[in-house]
Design goal:
The complex is a heterotrimer of chains A (291), B (335) and C (239).
Chain A: H1 2-32, H2 39-55, H3 60-83, H4 92-115, E1 129-132, E2 135-138, H5 139-161, H6 163-173, H7 175-180, H8 185-208, H9 219-232, H10 238-257, H11 263-277
Antiparallel strand pairs in A: 1-2
Helix pairs in contact in A: 1-5, 1-6, 1-8, 1-9, 1-10, 2-3, 2-4, 2-8, 2-9, 3-8, 5-6, 9-10, 10-11
Chain B: H1 2-7, H2 17-37, H3 41-66, H4 74-91, H5 96-118, H6 123-143, H7 145-148, E1 154-155, H8 173-195, H9 197-207, H10 209-214, H11 219-245, E2 247-248, H12 255-268, H13 274-289, H14 296-311, H15 315-332
Antiparallel strand pairs in B: 1-2
Helix pairs in contact in B: 2-8, 3-8, 3-11, 3-12, 3-13, 4-5, 4-6, 4-11, 5-11, 8-9, 8-11, 9-11, 12-13
Chain C: E1 7-16, E2 19-29, E3 35-38, H1 45-52, E4 60-65, E5 68-69, H2 75-81, E6 83-86, H3 98-105, H4 115-125, H5 127-131, H6 142-155, E7 160-164, H7 172-187, E8 192-195, H8 199-205, E9 208-213, E10 216-221, H9 229-237
The chains are: A mainly alpha (291), B mainly alpha (335), C alpha/beta (239).
Chain lengths: 291, 335, 239
């Protein structure tokens, strides 16, 4: 029983973090059609902003939301500086990969210069531990497991229940037609990046609360988010969310049965297998567009 | 629109064979004479690194620029070369030259393997899968630490030898010429390849997939051929890198190296082969020149890459052209 | 009808990148009523409409809508003036529902107050859309998609409606239905600028015709100079 709950718990926890990251990647891809390779760096930056605000003496309840808001601004700025000027170029996908990679390197090295290489830690969302179904877990992790679906649900209803969300979905599908109904396409692009950066920043804050943070902490989550997105299909929001939890469970189970070392290789094999059968991801057919 | 725009810069074989051959021989003769000018081993080291980067970048240009296959696992092929050589030469005790050649073959096989999942994929999915491939090759190498040394890497990897020649006390002269020979062979191979029928068909496939397929070009086979062709010298470059550095480290899989090499490909202007080689010189020399800036160096490099990509969409080629116009105007004005 | 042209294009040169499609094109529209544009494919009709609606910035020249200079304004700013362009084809927003599209049509602040009233108009004009209100656009037929396109434009509360080949590729029955709807819109008081291959329909709909050829207006046909179908066909092919 304890094994089972161990895997369920681990899967839910990892899945939550992956979902937070992957949704932002998918949001930017569906709206703008580019891949943001500085997404992992956003995660790191969110954690460090939060750490800095806490270090200034702000209470966590103010510092964390403030860091998330600041990240929205950072996302907007990044979009305006290294993505927007390239829109309309024939090789935009490729060029944006390099500009976001370079921007990521710039920010990462900047963080290294500002905050130094020494590991830091954020306060937990909730202090303390508890035991559920025979598994000892921290309340911080429980909080993440609970908060993440709420945030994803909020994002979903923003996209599906508000006019601005509708506009964002529209831009994702047809840029010309969006302009012809009077949408501000550049602002919506900025908004997509801002939301993605906020979510990544929040994921960083979550991560900084239970693991030491350093300037390169975003690299691995970015990789995982990429796998999640490939797995779930990139042209939707719900696909990556399902895939994130699925991969979370897969990893938890694989870690238990095959060990930490073989899990990445296994994951890759499963990924290859999936793509050979369903090149656009397993959940791609179910729903398209930003829904 | 987009198809048209991509198609314009790369009509294969605009320059005649003779003219290209003359330029090729002249260019590499100049490179071969460089050790006469640069006697110190530091300069020669920089040149050797430039040659290695140039091989990796120009081969990447084959798959990325000519093939239009967004292979983000290219550096993994280089890394596979590094580790294949190190394991063969050090652990298995294979002769270094045989290990070097085998590494190229192993990288080629790996490229064929990566092609399988991406055969039916397009654009961004290829980026994701190949990127995942690179990261997972790294994970496997880290996890097999008994053999590969894990995150510590491998040290005391056997170097190359040339008869009884002392490779260590010659001011890196032997390694310089081996690296140059590697670059010459790789560049010759790439240029012959892109000017061949196979090269024409991969460009056709990139520019108008439906049409090319309807004309009998096999997408699957050409993609595999392109990636395999881009892998061989990349793998050998990795092996040479390991032999030259005498160690193997997982740093070769890192984002920073990938970013630098990709910048070389894009800065040089894709679908030129030579552009990537020139950009390798420019970026490496620039990076070395900034050695004094310490922690600021990667930031300045990143900023430079962004600025060039924003201002000169067609890379260094566009920049050189713009500079030429500027100079030409200045020269004209006083007259 | 009115004294001044509602839309005037003066010496506009436009195109994509280094390719120039429109060469110094000049036309005045709306002085006499609806305007029809025709001419061989690939000679700049669509580019002209895209330039008017701000999707393409003209390289030189001037575009004025209702006496106001709109040259170089963003598509969004032009939508805000009430000049609404229904683009060619029916790609639209494949994964939005019809209801979503109508809500988007009323996105601009100018159209927002008229949303309910316009929705009623659209539903009256295209009762089919009401039946499929919650259906995704990709699941609709070509004719229905064209109705969604035009309906979305009507939701934007147009003062001038530009239609780019509204009947392209439609089956005859649906085409008739759509033509009738377009006539209704015109009778409802919205002036139209229409690009169309179906000359019969164009002759019926518009009082002023322009033949666009090689990126310029080759012939203008004003009211009273009404031409026979055969003469127009000769203009098409007789050069």
């Amino acid at each position: 029983m304890s094994v089972f709950s161990d895997i369920v718990f681990g899967g839910l926890f990892q899945g939550s973090l992956y979902a937070m990251m992957a949704v932002g990647l998918a949001l930017v891809w569906t709206t703008i059609g580019v891949f943001n390779f500085s997404h992992g760096v956003f995660m790191m930056l969110g954690a460090y902003f939060a750490w800095q605000l806490v270090a200034f003496g702000l209470p966590v309840v103010i510092a964390f939301p403030l860091a998330v808001i600041v990240m929205a601004g950072a996302g907007w700025i990044l979009q305006a500086s290294v993505v927007r000027p390239l829109i309309g170029r024939p090789n935009i996908v490729l060029v944006v990969v390099i500009t976001t990679l370079a921007a990521g390197s710039l920010i990462e090295n900047g963080a290294l210069t500002v905050w130094g290489p020494r590991s830091k830690q954020l306060p937990s969302l909730i202090e303390g531990n508890t035991t559920i179904a025979g598994v000892g877990v921290s309340l911080h992790q429980i909080a993440i497991i609970v908060i993440t679906p709420l945030i994803l649900a909020a994002l979903w209803s923003f996209l599906n229940r508000t006019r601005l969300g509708l506009a964002l979905r529209a831009v994702a599908q047809n840029e010309d037609a969006s302009q012809l109904v009077g949408l501000n396409v550049t602002a919506l692009y900025g908004l997509a990046f801002a939301i993605a950066a906020s979510l990544a920043g929040l994921a960083g804050i979550f991560m900084g609360g239970y693991r030491f943070m350093n300037p390169s902490m975003g690299a691995d989550p970015l990789l995982k988010a990429l796998i999640v997105v490939v797995f779930g299909g990139i042209s939707s929001i719900s696909g990556p969310i399902f895939a994130a939890y699925l991969i979370g469970f897969f990893e938890a189970a694989s870690n238990y049965y095959f060990g930490l070392y073989w899990t990445p290789a296994l994951l890759f094999l499963v990924l290859i297998g999936t793509l050979m059968v369903r090149p656009e991801g397993i959940f791609a057919g179910r729903s398209r567009g930003l829904a | 629109m987009t198809l048209l725009d991509i198609a314009i810069p790369s009509a294969p074989g605009r320059v005649t064979w003779n003219r290209e051959a003359i330029g090729f021989v002249a260019g590499f003769l100049v490179l071969a004479l460089l050790p006469l000018v640069f006697g110190d081993s530091y300069s020669r080291h920089v040149l050797i690194m430039i040659f290695i980067y140039a091989v990796v970048a120009s081969n990447w240009d084959l798959s990325l620029g000519y093939g239009g296959v967004f292979n983000f696992g290219h550096l993994a092929l280089f890394g596979i070369g590094v580790y294949a050589y190190s394991l063969l030469a050090k652990v298995a005790g294979v002769d270094p030259w045989i290990a070097l050649f085998s590494s190229g073959v192993i990288a080629t096989l790996a490229a064929v393997l990566v092609t399988i999942p991406i055969l039916r994929l397009k654009g961004i999915y290829i980026i994701l899968v190949t990127f995942g491939f690179a990261q997972l090759v790294m994970q496997v190498i880290i996890s097999q630490s008994d053999l590969t040394g894990g995150t510590q890497g491998l040290v005391r990897v056997p170097g190359l030898y040339v008869f009884e020649h002392n490779m260590i006390r010659d001011g890196k002269l032997a390694y310089f010429y081996i690296a140059l020979a590697l670059l010459v062979a790789s560049t010759l191979f790439l240029r012959l390849f892109v000017r061949s029928r196979a090269g024409a068909s991969i460009v056709a496939l990139r520019d108008n997939e439906e049409y090319a397929i309807s004309r009998g070009v096999s997408l699957a086979r050409q993609r595999m051929v392109t990636l395999a062709a881009s892998a061989f010298f990349t793998g050998i470059a990795g092996a040479f890198y390991a032999a030259y550095q005498r160690n193997a480290s997982i740093d070769v899989f890192g984002m920073s190296l990938a970013t630098i090499i990709l910048s070389m490909v894009l800065l040089g202007g894709t679908s030129t082969i030579y552009g990537a080689i020139i950009a390798s010189f420019v970026l490496t020399v620039f990076s070395e020149a900034m050695a004094d800036f310490g922690a600021w160096r990667p930031m300045i490099t990143a900023l430079l890459i962004i600025v060039i990509m924003l201002v000169y969409p067609s890379g260094l080629v566009g920049m050189i052209r713009a500079a030429w116009t500027w100079v030409a105007e200045r020269v004209k004005r006083p007259a | 009808m009115s004294e001044n042209p509602i839309l005037s294009v003066e010496a506009v040169t436009s195109g994509y990148g280094r390719v120039t499609v429109l060469h110094d094109i000049t036309l005045e529209a709306g002085r006499f009523g609806n305007v029809g544009l025709f001419g061989p494919n690939g000679h700049g009709k669509t580019t002209l409409l895209r330039t008017i609606s701000g999707l393409v910035a003209p390289k030189s020249g001037r575009v004025a809508f209702d006496g106001k200079d709109i040259t170089g304004l963003s598509a969004r700013a032009i939508v805000a003036t009430g000049l609404i362009h229904v683009p060619q084809g029916n790609k639209l927003f494949p994964d939005l529902t019809i209801g979503d599209c109508m809500a988007l049509g009323a996105y601009s602040p100018r159209a927002r107050p008229h949303e309910a009233e316009n929705r009623e108009k659209v539903v009256k004009l295209f009762p089919k859309l009401a039946e499929r209100w919650r259906q995704r656009v990709r699941t609709l037929s070509g004719g229905e998609r064209q109705m969604v396109s035009i309906g979305t434009a009507l939701m934007s509360h147009p003062r001038l409606l530009i239609l780019d080949e509204p009947t392209l590729g439609l089956a005859p029955k649906i085409k008739d239905e759509l033509c009738a709807a377009v006539m209704d819109i015109s009778k409802g008081g919205v002036p139209l600028v229409v690009v169309e291959q179906d000359i019969e329909f164009l002759l019926e709909l518009s009082r002023q015709l322009f033949l666009v050829d090689h990126g310029a207006v080759k012939t203008e046909i004003r009211p009273g100079e009404s031409l026979e179908h055969s003469e127009i066909m000769a203009m098409y092919f007789g050069h």
